[in-house]
């Protein structure tokens, strides 16, 4: 049996859930909850001291300001809530301090790194100030982030030989060098949808969202819950999202009304 609502036809099971939400709520906003397969995860990327003012070595402007919104998101019924941590050894390849002059300027210099398992595969990557070193204050999650509501903390970037912006894996493909276990965690929990927020919008949030889409999750980035190292790069990032089927949503646009 089916019943038409506002031009759409829904199965009875869907209708029962839809009528349980505010009757005036647009159908579009309650539809994800009406689909039995909808199981959302929240991934909060790298909300760590080193990415935030006032003392972070790689501070992203406004990085601390997103925490109240992140805490609101943590109050929502995501099936899994994950916080990730960039977690580097002191000799990490991305630190400018580990390279020789003159091509060792943090934020500026680009280097080529080869896949340690296959030298024919290479990546161009940016050098950074030392940041998020294991065991240091800079690697800690912000104390104002309500980690009591986080189910899993996923560390990444421990392999000194490779850069790893994505919370899923390093960028090498032939073969991949380092995986965090996040894909398995989400797949094992039968997650269907991944919502990404955190720092930085143009690096770790970006590659985490793109990898989430590659893993087959319907992926949304919560735009106002991110901040970029270089805001002028975001147009290009939005284009990448478009091509990958990643959507940018905002807290109050209905995308989180389930
Ligand atoms: C990040 C630069 C270097 C990030 C991590 O979390 O966006 N950016 N390492
Ligand atoms: Zn890093």
Low-confidence stretches: 1-28
* Individual helix count: 6
pLDDT averaged over residues: 90
Radius of gyration: 20 Å
Which structural class fits the helix and strand makeup? Answer: alpha/beta
SSE string: EEHHEHEEEEHEHEHE
- The fraction of residues assigned to DSSP E strands is 15-25%
Q: Helicity range of the residues?
A: 10-25%
Would you write up a description of this structure?
With 258 residues, the protein is α/β, with parallel strands linked by helices. The protein is built from 6 helices and 10 strands. The model is unreliable at 1-28 (pLDDT under 50). α1 packs across α2 and α5 packs parallel to α6. The strands form 3 sheets. A 6-stranded parallel β-sheet has the order 7-4-3-8-9-10, sandwiched between helices. It has a two-stranded antiparallel sheet with strand order 1-2. The chain has a two-stranded antiparallel ribbon with strand order 5-6. Helix content is 21%, strand content 24%. The two termini are 25 Å apart. The structure holds pyrazine-2-carboxylic acid and zinc ion (ZN). The site of pyrazine-2-carboxylic acid (VGL) has 11 residues, from loops. Zinc ion binds at residues 86, 88, 94, 131-132, 157. GO terms for molecular function: metal ion binding; nicotinamidase activity. It is an enzyme of class 3 (hydrolase).
């Amino acid at each position: 049996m089916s019943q038409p609502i506002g031009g759409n036809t829904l199965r009875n099971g869907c209708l029962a859930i839809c009528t349980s939400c505010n009757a005036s709520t647009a159908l579009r906003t309650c539809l994800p909850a009406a689909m039995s397969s909808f199981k959302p995860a929240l991934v909060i990327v790298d909300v760590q001291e080193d990415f935030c003012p006032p003392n972070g070595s790689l501070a992203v402007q406004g990085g601390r300001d997103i925490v109240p919104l992140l805490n609101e998101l943590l109050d929502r019924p995501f099936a899994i809530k994950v916080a990730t941590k960039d977690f580097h050894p002191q000799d990490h390849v991305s630190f400018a301090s580990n390279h020789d002059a003159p091509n060792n300027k943090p934020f500026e210099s680009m280097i080529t790194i080869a896949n340690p398992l296959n030298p024919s595969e290479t990546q161009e990557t940016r050098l950074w100030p030392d940041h998020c070193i294991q065991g240091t204050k800079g690697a800690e999650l912000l104390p104002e982030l309500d980690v009591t509501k986080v189910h899993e903390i996923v560390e990444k970037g421990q392999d000194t030989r490779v850069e790893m912006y994505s919370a899923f894996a390093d960028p090498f493909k032939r073969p991949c060098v380092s995986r965090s276990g996040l894909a398995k965690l989400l797949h094992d929990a039968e997650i269907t949808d991944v919502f990404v927020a955190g720092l930085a919008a143009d690096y770790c949030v970006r590659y985490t969202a793109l990898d989430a889409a590659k893993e087959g999750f319907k992926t949304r980035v919560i735009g106002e819950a991110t901040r970029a190292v270089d805001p002028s790069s975001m147009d290009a990032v939005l284009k990448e999202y478009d091509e990958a089927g990643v959507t940018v949503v905002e807290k109050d646009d209905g995308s989180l009304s389930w």
